[in-house]
Fold these 2 entries.
Entry 1:
Amino acid sequence: MAANMIQIDYLLDNISPCDLLILHDGIDSRTFHSNGNHLLTEILFPLPNKQLDIGEASPFTFPAIDVTKSRSAMCRTAIILINFFTSLSSKWRKQRRQNEWMEFANEGHFYFRPDPDSKNEYFVVRDRNIFTVVVGHREKVGGLSLFMDLERFSKEVYNLGIAYISREGSLEHFCVKGQDGEDIHEGNLNCVDKMGNLITTFINLSAPPKYWYFIVEDFDLQKANFTMDIKLVNDINVLNPFNRSLPYTVEHLAQAVFRKANATLVGLQITKRARIGLYDIKEYHWDYTTVNLRFAGFEFLTCYAESYLSFRFYVDPFQPDLWVGLGICLFLIIAIVWMYVHFAEVGNVSFSPWLFVLSTLLEEAHHVPSKINKLIIFRYIFGLWSLMSVILTNCYNGLMISNLNSPLNSVIPETFADLLCDGGTIHSSSYYNSTDFLVNLREKLKIDLISTYYQGILNYGNVYNTSFVDLQNQHDSTNCYKLLSSPVKFPGEQVIDFMFLRYLTDLFDHLLHEHLNSKGPESVPLLEWPHLALMLQLLNPRHAHFPKEIDYSTKNLTVTDLQQKIETEIVDCSRKAVFIAKSEHLQFEFDFLEWSYYGTEFHKGEEILNPLPEGIVFESEGLSKVPKYYKGLIETGIYARIEKEVESVAMANRDEAITLIKDDRFSLGLDAGIVTLFMLCGFVLAGSTLCFWFECRSKMVRCG
């Protein structure tokens, strides 16, 4: 047997149902031969336009495998054969960037292009079920941890097995590293002398991670304190979530999960420790195990409604089809009676059918000549009409009077476009197709003013400069909606920020970075991105974003202070103000305001701005059942029910910012539909006065 010849039949013949990948640096080809039937060996293809140095000689560049042109296996086995590990006499070959080479082989073997026309843009598709086996002698492989620390061997290999071979090249032991920690030592290896199926052996020897840590990457998803109470999760006392006398939180829900999985949540972040976190999962769903909780975006609520006068309620009691039927019926009645009176032998009788019909509708008496009154046709037609008119007039009066006593109709904002100062008119992208309009639009948007306001907000956050307050007070308008949002204090920052304002400034910051080489914000291509016109208008200082009558320079300013001030302004329905928050937070505020300020009618907008999937992301979970337990809680509705209960407790423990005194006595005033009666009466008086003037004038002319 050649000095470089080792036996891996026990691996090649027992990898079903996974694909096989062999990484080597010049092992004898006879090593890959087997008497049994096994899957064909896959060949490593690095990513396109990416050079990976294999050895000291020269870089190799090959195309990777396009996942859209190949199948995706349930799992993949990677066997690593390096001369230093498989030969007792070999020395370590310095291989540049070998750790990246191994990470790529394990996690970047497939790719796809989101845009087929873009040759340089691609996303790596990571295989999650990868089982990596390092083959070598115990004397050599024992230093694997050292090579990881020296970045000669990848630390990113998660399911790692070691096949210890004898001096003759046959299998001596097969060990699997535990899924907790990085180090490879005897205490972290579970071993067997003989092995059957490689995947089954991996599963049997792998222990799920016992220690997890919680992380929240996106500040928008974090709580006020940005931490999870580890003590509550690991508490030995089990709390009833529906006992409101006890401070139950979602941490106790995590307690139930980790207790059943026999795992512990820790607060210290350690590499290669299993992680659970709240994320915007759209960037993670193809790399990690994700469980979707909700789609959340920015929504708004307000109690402000802009009233307007309308005479529509005079025709609203009847549907259009009823009005049409009533008109046809009246026409036929009047026409039949008129023709009978004029063409039948009734005699010289003065009778107007339409005046009689009109008087019955107005519930007034009308004289009917005795000759007409004795006619059988008159009694049949007008007898039925009188009965029908009583029903119609009573129905009409009841519905109309109810509307007459109700408040005036009002316009309620439903979308973010309705909040704009420009009358809320938003056009499609085809509307932005002329340079002349773009110039006018830029003048409307006042981008220079927005840019100055944006810089003032940044200075407030970075150097605690409150000059933005003067800028806001100088330009804000009572005719524009005040855009107030959730106050939050991020870790490491001294000032209190506002979530929606943060979103707008981040968007503006992104625009500036996209156009650094241009002339500034004036070069933003609004023709290409008409949606940005709406976003920029919402950042206009005419829309106040900060509650007034607060000293922002004080160091003692708290989130609670701002929250109460915002609440005070929102419940004042005479002000044009809206509260903007993420969907779940806004729903909580909506329920709290309706409960605390009974009698005040609050409205939620119908638009969700920038909706994104939010959920729980699990990383390095291995064989743990924690993701499965969380998925069960969410899909069965238990998680949502517990969140609702926690919100109810928070609502009960929260006090309203102000006390509104409402007079339950009802007094009719001119701020309701009753004012239209005075207007109609005024029109009639004006018309009669005008007619009286014309009659007097005509008599004076005749007399003169």
Entry 2:
Amino acid sequence: MNSELPGGGLRDGALAEAFLEMLAAERGASLNTLVAYRRDLDDFRAVTGRLAAATVHDVQQYLSGLAVRGFAATSQARRLSALRQFFRFLVAESVRSDDPTATAEPPKPRRGLPKLLSVADVDRLLGTARDEASYAALTPVRRLSALRLLTLLELLYATGLRVSELVSLPASAGRGARPFIGVRGKGGRERLVPLNNAAHIALSEYRAAPAALGRPDGKWLFPADSAQGHLTRQAFARDLKTVAERAGLDASKLSPHVLRHAFATHLLSGGADLRVVQMLLGHADISTTQIYTHVLDERLRQLVNDHHPLAER
């Protein structure tokens, strides 16, 4: 195809057509894909005034302009992908020797808000787990399993631990006189997290259950059902979804991470300081914790609506 595209002698429109023909013939691109790519190339040329001869500066300015024009990060990334494929095509066909998109970085998508779980939802979830753990007809083994799940849920909502931190707690966790759990988190950073009364009671009852079965203390607070190791994240997530279904909640939207989000969100909406929540969650950077400030925004909006003298006008 080099003979058809000698050294940039063709106009931008012809080069774009040759590129689209290649996509259709060699890559089997659909009509919708071809239409989208043509639109992207036409828009770039309309904004920068050129296409095949574009510079690195042209590409940078164009991408910056997309954000100003209100394009989402995913749309910006798609347009960059279209341009990158076009210029790589030109390089492969010896139309130009460099790719002006080579150093361009796609925009990072904005972090979405965590899935929300209401206080009532959490109360229903924990209530169901408590009822099942106290069911009189359970065999000792089934009771131990139910107590383990209840304790996992109570600890997770009381502490906001990462699921990997929770399931790998040592057997000694929370044994001290004070209701605290020591955690070694990401990067080996240690933190001390307080337990509420419900979590402390659940933990105490759970600790007593293996002794009633004659089981010796092991290495892990939550040992796996197999002979060795601790409970896996996947096994806990599965058990969580099961009890969520029995509680009448949408299990597809529930995970250990969602319960961790609920811990942080409910603390903030109750008036907790952001830096305290940062410490409890084990975030090294407060910017990671700031994703939860949407609840503070909602509190401020409600405060204005409730107390501003002209809010209802």
